[in-house]
């Protein structure tokens, strides 16, 4: 039986301010919870409807009824396990390899997809402006599929970070150089901007290389979604290294 | 004042069976409605909260209150204009250029993003298996942003279509040839599969060239989302033509 105060606590973690206050977040689903348990993330508590779902040696597990799981879950159809985890230790940003920088990306689905892309393409460092959507937002976590354990995500003053970095800064613009012909170095910062407004003026001024994905379908399509554009740019970065 | 029967009719078009029965679908938002009005799509009726939003010469416009718009809308925050449009005439598939084939893609957001990608990369023909999500689903239309007017979308028996085609068939698999080194021809069929299960067995047997996006982040990431993978493959197809 999950008590009222526990339900209230877990539900509160759906909001960023309480996540920050407690330094904890919630993930749901067997697969993602297991991935987090197998990583460096530290579990606070796991709620499971069945003894065999999570190894009790790893963590403080409480068996709960399906009705109780529904009470603490954020999903319409809760998926057997819910885990409360502590925020990971954020490592300092290292100036090696490619760093992806997000300037005010707002959509949780895009953010989750971008984290998964970083993981696929071996981009270990994701630096986000402070107005970028919180990576521990439940919708972000649903889209990352455990990739969040393998990418170091830092929220900081992006303008100051870029100013103080010695790396070349690549930014995506509608009128930049065709990324198919741009020679990419082995390291750098790639900046992706806000869904509606792109890269902010202050940060655009710091971009050394403006690049673009060429369009083949006439001039009508407005732009690519930021997550699909990130997919193409990260693929191009890795392609150039070959 | 929008009458009860009109509300019922418009609301019914949120379901596929009524869309098929009436041969009509709903789009919302000024921008997308305008794009459809400026295309070959034929409007049945447009509901707008303001006279200046849509040129009345183009179409049968009914001015409605915000409260009425809320009654017929599928959105939490309706966006000034709602249009009911007739299904477009589906053109026969032409065996020229690249054809994208979707084998049981289920997620409306993915479908919408894929249509937008076809538009960007000039892929004019999208052939879908009959179990692929309906392109006139409201969530698909929300993600396409008007691109649907520039891509010919055909639902058919995909297996038969591929069997009867003379084009080379490229399919995406975890263990295929690295797409960075695959030489792409000027035309062909690219098959993308279901979110959970990939390309079905019967269609996989017809694939001439198995290709894959190389992974750089270790072996843990399971797979890329089908929309982001499509972004990368379409970019690679156009890249090879250069």
TrEMBL record, chains A, B:
Keyword list, A-Z: Methyltransferase, Transferase
GO biological process entries: methylation; RNA processing
Name listed for the protein in its UniProt record: RNA methyltransferase
One GO MF term attached to the UniProt entry: RNA methyltransferase activity
Keyword flag Nucleus: no
CDD domains: SpoU-like_RNA-MTase (cd18109)
Family according to the record: Belongs to the class IV-like SAM-binding methyltransferase superfamily. RNA methyltransferase TrmH family.
Organism: Maribacter luteus
A cellular component annotation (GO) from this entry: cytoplasm
Segments forming domain RNA 2-O ribose methyltransferase substrate binding: 26-91
InterPro entries: Alpha/beta_knot_MTases, MRM3-like_sub_bind, Ribosomal_eL30-like_sf, rRNA_Methyltransferase, SpoU_MeTrfase, SpoU_subst-bd, tRNA_m1G_MTases_N
Superkingdom of the source species: Bacteria
Lineage of the species this protein comes from: Bacteria, Pseudomonadati, Bacteroidota, Flavobacteriia, Flavobacteriales
């Amino acid at each position: 039986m999950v008590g009222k105060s526990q339900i209230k606590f877990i539900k509160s973690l759906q909001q960023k301010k309480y996540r920050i206050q407690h330094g904890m977040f919630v993930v749901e689903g067997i697969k993602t919870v297991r991935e987090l348990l197998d990583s460096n993330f530290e579990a606070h508590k796991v709620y499971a409807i069945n003894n065999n779902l999570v190894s009790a040696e790893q963590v403080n597990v409480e068996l709960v009824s399906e009705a109780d799981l529904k009470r603490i879950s954020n999903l319409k159809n809760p998926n057997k396990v819910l885990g409360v985890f502590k925020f990971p230790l954020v490592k300092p940003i290292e100036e090696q390899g490619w760093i992806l920088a997000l300037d005010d990306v707002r959509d949780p689905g895009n953010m989750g997809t971008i984290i998964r892309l970083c993981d696929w393409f071996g981009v270990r460092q994701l630096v986000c402006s402070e107005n970028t959507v919180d990576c521990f937002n439940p919708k972000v976590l649903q889209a990352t599929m455990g990739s969040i354990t393998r990418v170091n995500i830092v929220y900081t003053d992006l303008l100051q970070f870029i100013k103080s970095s010695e790396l070349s800064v690549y930014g995506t613009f509608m009128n930049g150089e065709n990324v198919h012909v741009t020679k990419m170095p082995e390291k750098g910062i790639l900046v992706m901007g806000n869904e509606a407004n792109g890269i902010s003026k202050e940060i655009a001024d710091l971009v050394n290389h403006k690049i673009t994905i060429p369009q083949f379908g006439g001039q009508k399509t407005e732009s690519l979604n930021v997550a699909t554009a990130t997919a193409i740019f990260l693929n191009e970065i890795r392609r150039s290294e070959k």
